[in-house]
Amino acid sequence: MTVLVLNITNGTVINNTANATYNNETSAFLSAHDTESTTVLNPPVLNLSNISVTKTGNSSSVAPGSQLKYTITVNSTGNGTAYNVTVNDTYSAIVIFDSAQPSPLAGTNNTFILGNLTPGTSIAINITVKRFSVCA
């Protein structure tokens, strides 16, 4: 049996017990077991990717016809590379997309292909939308 052990310190003892139960020829219920103890020495450092996303705006309210700017920040917070990172933003029904840096995926106004993010990498997407002058 192979077991993946995460977040364990050097010197920790892992006890692994296997149990088997059975009935013999006289229908007696019997069991057998064995335990293996292993001491962890120099546990490996695993490369696990993780990302965090925050979205902030430049205002909590916007007048009709005015622009609203906000930033989506994606941080690679793990110790492994996050591959093929894509951000898909959803706009309110009362705004229209104006611009973004970096540019969204061709043919869209809300999908951003960021690629691979190595540990500690941070990417900001700056988006500008405009509120409709007249809202239904």
Overview of this protein structure:
Strand 1 and strand 2 form a beta hairpin. This protein folds into two domains: 45 residues, no CATH class; 81 residues, Immunoglobulin-like, CATH 2.60.40. With 136 residues, the protein is mostly beta strands. The strands form three sheets. A four-stranded antiparallel sheet has the order 3-4-8-6, with no helix packed on it. A two-stranded antiparallel sheet has the order 1-2. It has a two-stranded antiparallel sheet with strand order 5-7. The protein has no helices and eight strands.
List the helices and strands and how they pair.
Elements lengths: L12 E11 L5 E11 L11 E7 L9 E10 L5 E7 L6 E7 L9 E7 L4 E10 L5
Antiparallel strand pairs: 1-2, 3-4, 4-8, 5-7, 6-8
Number of helices: 0
Just give the CATH class of the largest domain: Mainly Beta
Question: Widest sheet: strand order?
Answer: 3-4-8-6
DSSP strand content: over 45%
On the 0 to 100 scale, the average pLDDT is 85
Shape descriptor: elongated
The CATH architecture of the largest domain would be Sandwich
The value of Rg in angstroms is 27 Å
The CATH topology of the largest domain, please? Immunoglobulin-like
- How many domains in all? 2
Tell me the distance between the termini.
64 Å
Strands, count: 8
Q: What would you call the structural class?
A: mainly beta
Helix content: under 10%
Element order: H for helix, E for strand: EEEEEEEE
Main sheet attributes: strand count, strand direction, barrel closure: 4 strands, antiparallel
Task: Give the low-confidence spans.
Answer: none
